[in-house]
């Protein structure tokens, strides 16, 4: 399989107690461990099995099967934990078993079927050795259990001059996760930005071209990195080699630790990279973008 920069995707394959096969981006996985002893918290969410202690730090353990609407295991000691770190939090996903790591191309990942519905908890599907693999929308799982706090931005964060700088400026957001998309749009609307949103990189390219043709070009693109068919890195590459769109300011907005992605983001031509999700940090990143555009 020939893969270019930004095109390769490593998936950790695992199974739930029902036998359902799922995959998760390997970059989101810290480690895999046997399920340790858990402390049950009286006020815990029903999809949280308990809290484990991992090297001196508390780790919330989520029953992944229950979180996505299936029956979980009856014994908290069976199975294993996939320890993930994303969107500035760390948690353990309790699953039945882990199978293997596989390589595929983002071009081979398709969006979820249209009939999957809002409770599907998957961001895409692909085939591995003839077997369908569903890719977990872990951001949606975490949001269902602990929604991001609605911290206010605007007057509390920005000076009047900074608010004026952002008012009415044109921003396009692309993210395949409906949860992440809505979180971002709430912040942009609080900042009084003129914003549009799409769910795929291909749609983002279409909107960017249409806006140029209408004489109201998008000034800043806020793009997720992990998306089916064309990821954020490839999207930036497409923009940079486009004679019309080449100077568009691109902020890559990722659930992964941005320190892991900065070098790769710069290599493909992104202007900035930010870890989801902090409304304050996103506001500051957008302010930086428009200050640079106006220099």
TrEMBL record:
Protein keywords: Phosphoprotein
Tagged with keyword Transferase: no
GO biological process: chemotaxis; phosphorelay signal transduction system
Sequence ranges assigned to domain CheW-like in this UniProt record: 8-147
PROSITE patterns: CHEW (PS50851), RESPONSE_REGULATORY (PS50110)
UniProt key word Phosphoprotein: yes
Pfam family, one: Response_reg
Superkingdom, taxonomy of origin: Bacteria
Modified residues annotated as 4-aspartylphosphate in this record: 224
Occurrences of domain Response regulatory (ranges): 170-291
InterPro entries: Chemotax_regulator_CheV, CheW-like_dom_sf, CheW-lke_dom, CheY-like_superfamily, Sig_transdc_resp-reg_receiver
The protein's name in its UniProt record: Two-component system, chemotaxis family, response regulator CheV
Source organism per UniProt: Phytopseudomonas argentinensis
